[in-house]
Structures are given as structure tokens and as C-alpha cells.
Amino acid sequence: MRAITLTQFGGPEVLTVGDVERPTLKPAEVLIRTAAAGVNRADLLQRQGHYPPPKGTSEIIGLEVSGHIEEIGEDVTGWSVGDPCVALLAGGGYADYVAVDAGQVIPPPPGVDLITAAGLLEVAATVISNMDHVRLADGETFLVHGGAGGIGSFAIQYAKSRGCTVAATAGTEEKLEVCRELGADIAIDYHDDWPTHLREATEGHGADVILDVMGAKYLDANVTSLARLGRLVVIGLQGGIKGELNLNKLLSKAGTVTATSLRFRPTAEKAAICARVRDEVWPLISSGQIRLAGETRFPIERVREAHEWLASGENVGKIVLTF
């Protein structure tokens, strides 16, 4: 089968289309014939050698796919060959076929084409699992960084569906307008003094929950921006891995700082999260409460361009590779 392989760690030029063996199916798994694969920031980090897959997982890049069931493990029920599906992966997505535990496979949202669906599950699972983790409550004030990206555009709408006051940061006026169109009540240019802008816009309250993809670079500013009893959850490290935490500032707010990685969660947890997405998020998409923010499509042969486009910072919404 075709798969994207690495000649070494490095820039997009190390990505090549090669031939590898088709995965061997385990009893609790299904084999999916890939229609499309989502492209995520984690993929760029893995390509650079900074985000290796969990032990025993495919070395092939790719954390989510859409496609059709090709083969069913002997312990699997509820699926038939040919069924359309989407899957949450720990790796292996940039390939013609992928084997995955059946608990991490769900039908695509009703009415959404299979290519678009490839870019929905990882985002939805990331957002809903982290909002559960920090106990986002209806009506709270919520801040997400990178509001026009895949995670941000979904998080804005999910928080709005919960009745939250939503703030988002972005780097250009075009992206700030995207945030507003998606429902952000407060849109802030991150080049400015965004903690001050947030404090003023919330009349001194700050954010009850912050979803952060930057890591070290924003750590102090995020803690500054927390409301009393506020919760910061870090899910990305685009701004570095080591930051200085002012414990006195955190103590004075009775705040919480936590960090999670969806990729390294046990299979049973991922299955539960996928079920939550199917039962809670897909109906929000069907009802129009969450609108699809659009995606940019690249054929698998142009995977290098897809990585370059994501790294450029110009992208809005999701990027998917088509097979």
C-alpha cells in the first residue's frame, strides 16, 4: 500500500510517498480503506522528530482518517464491510489502509461528506475531552488561542453552544473576523497586549477556562488572565516546553494549570471520548449549532505542500489529505 514515509527527521522535504506492508488486523480492530486524512500540528512535530508515537504504534504520521471498513476483526460487532467511518488514531493515518481499535471508530456526522469528515474527529475529541477535563460550565467565560485554526474554530462554537462568553486570539484582522463569524464575543490580536484587552472586555473578570496551544510562551500571561477559580489547560507547545510559573499569582486566584495529550490516552479512554463525540457533537453539527469552518484539500502526493501550508500560519480551518 501507499504511505507517507520519512527519509529522516526534518522539514517537509523528508516526506515521501512509498510502499509499505498493509497492517495486520488484531481481533478487536477494523481495517479502514482511507479516503482522507486530517493534518494536525502534531504531524509537523513528529516529522521534525519532536513527537514520537506511543510504543507499539505505527511510525507513519497521521492521527485521524475517514474511509470505509475494509475488514473486521473477529471480536468486533456493529460494523459491516463498506460502512463509511471516521477514526481517531495514535498514528498511521497517512496511508491507504489503517488498522485501529473498533472503539475509536464512529460513523461520520450525518450529511457531511467523507473528505470533510476526515478533519473533524481529532478536533472534536480534543475539545470535548479537555472541556470535560476542566469542567467547563454553561455560561462561563472561555478563551481559546488560535481561534481561526482547526481547534480554535471548533472550540469557539462548542463553547457558544454551552452559552459561554467566548474570547479568541488570532494574528490578522481576517482571522479575527473569522472568529467573530464563528461566534466569538471578544476577538483579540495576539500581537497586542491581549491579557489587558481580555481583562477590559470582561470588566476585570478574566477567563474561567483557557484552552491553550502555545505552552511556555503564554504561561504567565494565561495565569494572569485567569478568573478566580479559573482553569488553564495546555494542549500544545508551539511556544516552547519550559516556562516560568508564578505560583503566588496562581495561588491568589485558586487557579488550576493542567496539560493533556489525546494521543497517549489509553484505548478505553479514547473509545469513551469518541462515543461522546458521536452522541453530543455530531447532533450539534447536524442542527447547525456548530458550522464547519471549511478545509483546504491536498492530494496525498502533495503532502509536503500541506505541511508547508499549515506551518505558514496562513491556514484557516482544517487541512486534509485526499487519497
UniProtKB/TrEMBL annotation:
SUPFAM superfamilies: GroES-like, NAD(P)-binding Rossmann-fold domains. One of its GO terms (molecular function) is zinc ion binding. Keywords: NADP, Oxidoreductase. It comes from the Bacteria. Pfam families: ADH_N, ADH_zinc_N. The keyword Phosphoprotein does not apply. Residues 10-321 form the Enoyl reductase (ER) domain. SMART domains: PKS_ER. The keyword Heme does not apply. InterPro entries: ADH-like_C, ADH-like_N, ER, GroES-like_sf, NAD(P)-bd_dom_sf, Quin_OxRdtase/zeta-crystal_CS, Quinone_OxRdtase_PIG3. This is NAD(P)H-quinone oxidoreductase. The lineage of its organism: Bacteria, Bacillati, Actinomycetota, Actinomycetes, Propionibacteriales.
